[in-house]
Amino acid sequence: xxxxxxxxxxxxxxxxxxxxxxxxxxxxxxxxxxxxxxxxxxxxxxxxxxxxxxxxxxxxxxxxxxxxxxxxxxxxxxxxxxxxxxxxxxxxxxxxxxxxxxxxxxxxxxxxxxxxxxxxxxxxxxxxxxxxxxxxxxxxxxxxxxxxxxxxxxxxxxxxxxxxxxxxxxxxxxxxxxxxxxxxxxxxxxxxxxxxxxxxxxxxxxxxxxxxxxxxxxxxxxxxxxxxxxxxxxxxxxxxxxxxxxxxxxxxxxxxxxxxxxxxxxxxxxxxxxxxx
Length: 277
Description:
Shape: globular
CATH architecture: 3-Layer(aba) Sandwich
Number of strands: 7
Largest sheet: 7 strands, mixed
Number of domains: 1
Helix content: 40-55%
CATH topology: Rossmann fold
């Protein structure tokens, strides 16, 4: 099995620092806490953590599963080093390694829990990821997945639509709409999980508003560059150059439209709990 990047971009050292210091407390921590709260207790747990900043959940899960053995899979080399430093103080065994593409380098039925926080992946790669997680879970093992669902980032979606309209770009407009609709709803995500073989599937939906003093503050924040932009690019099937131009327009438009007032990024967070039968 092979696929593209399914967890996050190839972040460099500065990106990793910005994720930890800026994006995690303002945004990713909400996704992480939802997953941590739903961890099913297990006396001999082996936990895999995945995502653009997967070690962020290790501390919280270790409190619930104090004897667990953790396997933290980072999507970049810089992330590996940062994760080793971040988890040094965790009172649990934590192995950290690089994972840029599937398959997960573990045998079948290797983990009691797999926790995925905000994967940045195309719809096709998300399906591959779900099947791969099913493979590495033990029978009755738990998948926990948190990610933005359909209707997330509507403010940015509107700016992308405006860009396509201004340039009379029908193909671009169609690509944007197809990509936005490819983001799952709670119902379609449940269907994906069940089709991959999971049972006891539940999808909780939480509304998150991420506040910024102005549109410029959001446009210049690491959240846009490291998470929101790459996430939209993974959904919308456009050449990298064209997507970059559209996202640059969205940043400028948000800066101008919310030049003096608070800007709130709207996110529909889906939190999945599912079991391998």
